[in-house]
Structures are given as C-alpha cells and as structure tokens.
Amino acid sequence: MNQSFDKLLDARGLNCPMPLVNARKEVGKLEPGQVLKIIATDRGSVADFQGWAKIAKNVELIGQETESVDGANVYTHYVKRTG
Amino acid sequence: MTKKVESAWTTGDLLASLECRQKFFVLDVRNRDEFERFRLEGREPLPAVNVPYFEMLELGGQDEMVDSVVACVEQHLSGQLPKDQLILSVCAKGDTSEYVAQGLDRLGYASANLKGGMKAWGEHYATRAVVEAPDLSIYQVSRPARGCLSYVVASDAKALVIDPLRHLDPYLELARSKGFRIEMVIDTHGHADHISGGVALASASHASYHLHPYDAIHPMDVLPATIPYHAIHDSQVFPVGRVELEALHIPGHTLGLVALRVDDRYLFTGDSICIGSIARPDLGGKAESWAPLHGRSLRKLLGLPGSMTVLPGHFSSLAEENDASLFAATLDDLKRRNHGLQILEQETEEGFIRYLLENLPPFLPEYVDIKRVNAGLLAPSEDEASALELGKNVCALSQASKNCKGETA
Questions:
Q1: What is the CATH number of the domain that holds B116?
Q2: Do A51 and B99 touch (CB under 8 A)?
Q3: Domain coverage including residue B393
Q4: Which residues are registered as beta bridge partners of B111?
Q5: Are B9 and B88 in contact (CB under 8 A)?
Q6: Using an 8 Å Cβ cutoff, are B217 and B247 in contact?
Q7: Per the residue annotation, which of B91, B148, B274, B404 is the catalytic one?
C-alpha cells in the first residue's frame, strides 16, 4: 500500500492499549487532513483501530495492512484527522 | 466504601471463585463481538458490562488510559457498577484491563484484574483425581472455559491418556509428578470443537496414538487423514498396568466414536453422553443419516451396568460439577437427570430421531476447519489455532444443554 502520511508512530513491541493510546494522542496534534501512520506488533490492534475509528470524532481509518517481517507480523494503520 | 481486596486474579483464582459462587461483577473491555462470542460464565450467568477500552478512551476523553477510565466511569458507568462487590476487569490478554482495574481502584471500587485475560482463561487447565489407588488412578483434566474434559488412566506407573487437549504441559507435568510413563494416547473420536493434543502428546511421550479409522476420514472433505495412527476396532482391549480398557464402537456423534470402559466401574463416553446433555449428530454434516446410529449407540450404552461412573468428554456449565468438583455421575443417576436420555427412554426410535433433529444448535463454520486440523489436513499457527478454539464448545444438543442449566448437583 503506497499511502502517503505526515507523521510516523512506531508502536512495535508495545502491548494493548498503548498503540491506540499513543496514536490517539498523536492524531490530536495533526492538522485536519493530515495522516498518521502507526506500525504495531500487537495483533489485537487491527480490530481495535477499526472499532475506535467508528466511534471517535474527527478520525478516519483510511487503510490497514499486515506484513510478515522475519516471521513476525507487523500491522500498519493509517489514520486521518478529518476535523 | 467496600474494603480493598487483592488486585490481581490468576485464572486459578477465577475458577475457584466461580466454583464457590463468590459474587463478583465483570467489566469486560474487549470488542463487542469478542464479548458476545466468549464471555466468563459461572454456574449461573455472571453479571457483566461490556465497554470496549477505546470507547472508554473516547467517553473519558483523557490522554492517559487510567485517567480516561476514571472519567468514563464517573460520567457514564457509575450507575451500572456495584459498589458492594468486587469488579473484575477483563480484556483479551490482561494488559489493558490492568489500567481499568487501576482506574476503578482510584475511584474506591473493590477492584481486581484478570491476569492474562481471556486468552489465559481459555487456556487454563485443572487436573483433579477421580480415583487414586495403587491398581488404578484416573485424573480428569479439564479446560473449564471451553467445557472440554480429558483423562489420564494410570496403573503400575503406566498411563493411557484419553482425548488430550491442545496444550501438552498438564499431561506431561502430571506424568512427571506422579511417576507415570504415558504409553498410549486415544482420541475417542475426531473432534470438531477443539484441536486434539493426541498426536503431539504421543510423539512427545514416545507413546502410540489410537483413533477409530472411520474418524480418520474428514466427513465433509471425504479426504483421508495424514496423521499417523493405529486403528481402533470394536471390543479392542488396551491393557494399562493391572487394568484393561475396552473400546465400544458407538457411532452417531461421529462415525468412529468409541467409548472406553474399565470393567464395570468406569465408562469414558467421549461426547455421546455428558452430565446434562447428549451429543449432537450433525457435526459431520450428515445429521439425518447419523441420528439413527446415535440413538442405537446410546441405547447400547444404557444397557451397561447402572452403577458405572460416566466420565464425559464435555460439560456445558459448571453447574454440572458434583460435590467433589468433578464432572462425573453414575449411569443410573444420568437416566434420571439427563434430558436427552429421558427422551431416549420415553420415545420410539423415530420420535428420538425427530427430537435430535429438532434441537440442533447453530453450526459453527470453525468446526469444519478444526476437524481438518485434527486429521492433519490443515496446520494452523498458534494464533490461528487459538482463534479457531475461541469460546465454549457446542457439541451437545441445545435442548439438552438448556435443560441442565439451573439444575444443580
């Protein structure tokens, strides 16, 4: 996925809920229209970012992908601040 | 304000609390679909509220998790959470619920966190002795969250394991601590609801693995199993030290289901007869042709001595546990208590088949894949295996399992 982004948050190695807690803080610092890319190793983050984006104001989940790096899965989430 | 109690529960603490019916309240912060599929259950349903943690973050509106929990509970949940009993915070792996438990603690609730979360609870094993004597010991090894039961039968330091579950440590540990050598492993049938530990345990223990050949064919794929196994035949005898187990072929739940008896004392029924329920005949996708077999097999089992102790492969509720914390009852007792067996005794053959077919619970699509895994046709990763096994088994007829709820031993 060739999604452009404005800021990168590396949440690899962090357990739930920290990838989402940290992403939420960083999205709050973006300008409307800007995109935060989060990379995480917590498998639960996939469903959690989906659930969060549905209920959070001014946030849109514009993409997610999973890739295997050295046998371990890395989950990438792209979150856009919409307002 | 209630008095503060310890703030972390192990899965063992949880089981003890469920068994003694301690009153507590559950705050489950997983996603709603995860909660619907697999929630904590005791002898009776537990009072619970499900608020996903990301909803707590948004409702609380603070940057940090604990601060959000405090704000969210104060503003939105205080009416729903009891002040006079312990609140157990629960999530998938026990990390997020730790923050939730801290938030509740800060607000003055009696608060505890379930360590390891629902993943650890789903993988909790309990081992209990049914009988322990020099000539014969039997241990019931259960996975309480899933309602799965397995057995270790030992005599003269030799052991045979029946229906071992996916994690091998409970069996290897028991064998080590009691000084048994596991010589044989038997699956009573090709399981649909859980991944068998049979082949792996046999391999780890240098033991032989046994399965009825009819269950070495996947019933939907009609493909042969790739696992190594020795074929069980009806009336086959398995000697273990000073005792013998005899196989009884009782098709119905699967085509290759076998029960195992230890003379006139113990009857391992597989899934055919459980304490409050009987098996469903549809997990091979052939309910109408398998239901008559199931009825005939159950009648064969009811012809055995009524004083035999039935040791089943499943339970539907902790309410089925007896005073010794075992899932066990005599055949005579079950003739009085088990709804499915009562229908069997009252009905004609056709009437019983109708009853079976009218009470089939929903069919879980995961069960087709689990049968593939058990036949060696599919090899899931640990995460995939854990996801396939999520939640409580549904191997019993729905009417029967419904009926046993509310019954207490």
A1: 3.40.250.10
A2: no
A3: 125-404
A4: B87
A5: yes
A6: no
A7: B91
